[in-house]
Write a structure and sequence with these properties.
The complex is a heterodimer of chains A (about 325) and B (about 300). Chain A is mostly helical. Chain A is built from 13 helices and no strands. In chain A, α5 packs across α7 and α10 packs across α11. In chain B, about 50% of the residues are buried. Chain B is globular and about 75 Å long. In chain B, α5 crosses α8 and α10 packs antiparallel against α11. With about 300 residues, chain B is an all-alpha fold. Chain B has 14 helices and no strands. The chains are: A mainly alpha (about 325), B mainly alpha (about 300). The interface between A and B is large, with 52 and 45 residues.
């Protein structure tokens, strides 16, 4: 198990390194360069040249790459061209909001998806199952950000139940402090988390329903019923426990989905997270921020997959045995 | 929309119904087809797809000019009516017509980009699975890297290579970022196919690797390829919508469904229909594609379990 884990970790690091390299090359080759003034601005070319020299952009690409890697080895992510601050600081500000959003969305996704999946399996092929199944198909087919727009229109604009943008009230709570501000953040969090969570839950419910149906016909479930156990106990304890394995796969798959969704949903709700930071950085050609964002994103995806595999091994003795043999 | 356009629209609906009925008739003749029809959502899915393809092809007959602005002052942001069934946008353009012409772009991008993705994915997967050893290892590590980045992030970067990305490279890029999953599926299939007797027979007859892969192995791996193509088109359409929403997809005057949502977003409060209906169109088509894809999987590839 340990050897397997070490090998997987090494592979994950190799993947992240490759992503950093590819991102570095692509973004440096991108059209346009940083510090070039817009068509309506009048900036002294000498100033631009000095800025480019200051950030080392005048040196050949391989030299810049080696310099960047060397800094990265020492934990240095460089300085943003536009934010005028270290990239690490910008990331430290942007990661907590995204983790909050993704965590809340994941919670809604799994709780709602699990409940619906189990309920659908119990009522399989009856009206409630078919109705919920079709609703899930519809939700699953929507552009996530469009669902966000519709929720924003209905609950933010018409009913005015929730705020329409941002993470906290700028007047009441300039920074995180006190219970009232936690409530304020939760209030701002509701719509974006619901947007991401609902779309995710639609997929989770389908998988959970299928997994439950596979188990519910097996002999040990019939035995449990024959023993005279209540239906609730049969479903929730005997069946559900054995139908939880696919959820781990979904957990691993959820990371790319949440990150992709976050890019768009953060834009809709003006949520100050990683997604908005990286989109803005790519559009502005803010090279250090782009590479660092790619590094964080790919690390999250690979580690998410690894975590899912580890959870699999923990939960399923058959898989544990296989990974020990390999 | 005058009477003629409404009649043409009814005719388009009838054509779609006929197409769905024809598919049903053809499918009922074979065992795989009956498995396809066993899905209650398969036939409605086929109908929805046929309907959208029909109106996209017959756009001039069922819709007005998508770019004409008949009255920028008194006809802007009008709610749905008989004349403008889905309302008008802020420039007084007819939303229904823009959706109909947008179907050409959105469905076209979906189909072409998926074609690119599936071709590359099948090729890479077949080569990796057939040659194994270092070829397999190298290609699959590449796939690992590709899968470790959110696709929209990859695309955002690739699109940044241009100042304003033209349509053809955009389609190519969407396709080239979407083959990783397919290649894994095809590789797994080829790994088992290459051990079969008919491959040994072809090799014994002196067939080279290219002939064995393309004439003998890949045709037998068609099922997962077709299924992942059907499911891939919907994904591409969602992706295109997301890119357009970030303002870097299809250039603005061209009415793709994603850019329609983006254009309507700013006027969401005054004219919710401008953004709502294009999104509904995407949801309908993607739902239909998923339903047909799921049914195809059960029909062609009974071993592969789906939810």
């Amino acid at each position: 198990m340990t050897a397997w884990l070490v090998r997987r970790l090494a592979a994950a690091m190799a993947i992240v390194f490759a992503v950093v390299t590819i991102t570095f090359c692509v973004i440096h080759l991108a059209h346009g360069t940083p510090f070039l003034p817009g068509p309506d601005q009048d900036v002294d070319p000498q100033v631009v040249a000095r800025l480019r020299q200051q950030f080392g952009l005048d040196r050949p690409l391989p030299a810049q790459y080696v310099k960047y890697l060397w800094a990265l080895l020492h934990g240095e992510l460089g300085e943003s061209f536009y934010l005028r601050r270290p990239v690490a600081d910008a990331l430290a500000d942007a990661i907590p909001p995204t983790v909050t959003l993704a965590g809340a969305a994941l919670l809604i996704d799994f709780l709602l998806g699990l409940a619906c999946g189990v309920y659908q399996a119990v009522r399989a092929r009856r009206f409630a199952d078919i109705a919920l199944g079709n609703l899930a198909l519809f939700l699953n087919a929507m552009p996530t950000f469009w669902l966000g727009l519709v929720l924003l229109l209905v609950f933010g604009q018409w009913l005015r139940w929730f705020p329409v943008a941002g993470m906290r009230d700028p007047v009441l709570c300039p920074t995180i402090a006190g219970a009232r501000c936690t409530v304020d953040v939760l209030w701002h969090l509701a719509l974006p988390a619901l947007t991401l969570g609902l779309v995710g839950a639609a997929g989770t419910a389908r998988y959970q329903r299928a997994a439950m149906l596979e188990v519910i016909d097996q002999d040990f479930v019939r035995t449990a019923r024959a023993k005279g156990l209540g239906e609730g106990r049969v479903v929730l304890v005997h069946t559900l426990r054995n139908a939880l394995l696919p959820l781990i796969t979904l957990f691993g798959l959820a990371f790319p989905f949440l990150l992709t969704g976050a890019v768009l949903v953060e834009t809709v709700f003006a949520w100050p997270g990683m997604g908005r930071l990286s989109v803005a950085a790519i559009l502005q050609r803010d090279y250090p921020v782009v590479v660092a964002a790619a590094l964080v994103a790919s690390a999250m995806v690979t580690l998410g997959n690894l975590l899912a595999d580890v959870l699999y091994a923990v939960a399923d003795p058959r898989i544990r045995a296989r990974s020990e043999r390999a | 929309m005058n009477l003629g356009k409404w009649l043409a629209l009814a005719a388009a609906g009838a054509v779609a119904l006929l197409a769905a009925a024809a598919v049903r008739r053809r499918a009922a003749a074979s065992a795989a087809g009956r498995r396809f029809l066993a899905h209650p959502t398969a036939t409605p899915g086929v109908f929805i797809l046929a309907f959208f393809v029909t109106i996209a092809l017959a756009a001039p007959f069922v819709a007005l000019d998508p770019n004409s602005m008949p009255g920028i002052v008194d006809l802007r942001d009008r709610p749905p009516s008989l004349l403008h069934p889905l309302g008008t946008d802020v420039y007084s353009r007819d939303v229904w017509s823009r959706i109909v012409y947008g179907a050409r772009i959105s469905l076209g991008i979906g189909a072409l980009a998926t074609l690119v993705a599936v071709t590359v994915g099948a090729g890479v997967g077949a080569v990796a699975g057939y040659f194994r050893r270092w070829v397999d290892a190298a290609l699959m590590r590449l796939v690992d890297v590709g899968l470790s980045m959110p696709r929209i992030f990859l695309l955002l970067m690739a699109v940044a290579l241009w100042e304003r990305v033209p349509l053809a490279p955009l389609v190519l890029l969407i396709g080239l970022t979407g083959w990783f999953g397919t290649s894994r599926l095809v590789r797994a299939e080829v790994l088992s196919l290459r051990e079969r007797e008919f491959v040994a027979a072809a090799q014994a007859l002196g067939a080279g690797p290219a002939r064995v892969i393309f004439r003998h192995v890949l045709p037998n791996a068609a099922a997962p390829i077709i299924v992942s193509a059907a499911l891939g088109i919907g994904n591409v359409m969602l992706l295109e919508a997301g890119l357009s929403f970030l303002g870097i997809g299809v250039p603005s005057p061209a009415p793709s469904w994603g850019s329609l949502i983006y254009d309507g977003w700013q006027h969401m409060a005054a004219a919710p229909w401008t953004s709502t209906f294009p999104g509904l169109a995407i949801a309908l088509v993607v739902m239909a594609l998923n339903a047909v894809g799921d049914a195809l999987r059960d029909a062609l590839d009974p071993r592969q379990e789906g939810p």
